[in-house]
Write a structure and sequence with these properties.
By secondary structure, this protein is mainly alpha-helical. It folds into 2 domains: about 1-30, no CATH class; about 35-175, Tetracycline Repressor, domain 2 (Orthogonal Bundle), CATH 1.10.357.10. It is built from 9 helices and no strands.
Length: about 180
Amino acid sequence: MLLDDGYAGVSLREIASRLEISLGNLQYYFPSKDDLVEAVIKQETRTYIDLLDSVALDPNAPGTSIREVVGSLLRYYAGPGGRYYAIMEGLAVCEPRYARLKAQEYDHAFAHMAQWIGFLVPRLPPTRRERLAHVLVALIDGAALQVQIVHPEPGEAGMDALVDSVSAAVEQLLRSWE
């Protein structure tokens, strides 16, 4: 519903009705719409981090290519996860609660991205990994917003071209920071 109707177009009453549960039951778990949206955003962040970990940090798959990691993340963003991300970005601009949530969730993403960088460039000191993690997250986020806003259905060839471009940029950044 949030994806179809937008934040302003959703109410707890309508959500409860569509789920065929009582409003009181829904409010027991989510006292307000903001509580529900926050839970959804946290779950989507967890999904993103789990994806990053499974593709980039799986000890059983050493040497996972940058292209595979970038491709997995951008394809995730091309789906509903990216739409939730875009909603969070918009809410964070206007609402302090969501700005705090965004900062918390990004701290998790930065930590996992820094861990991946350490896997790729083990000689890079931790403070440089952390700074580079911010740059890489910004690069991938920017590409993700392009997928969601500018080219919402790029097709497989368009997605492959975007993955190739972002992967090349990531490789160049990693080389320049060594």
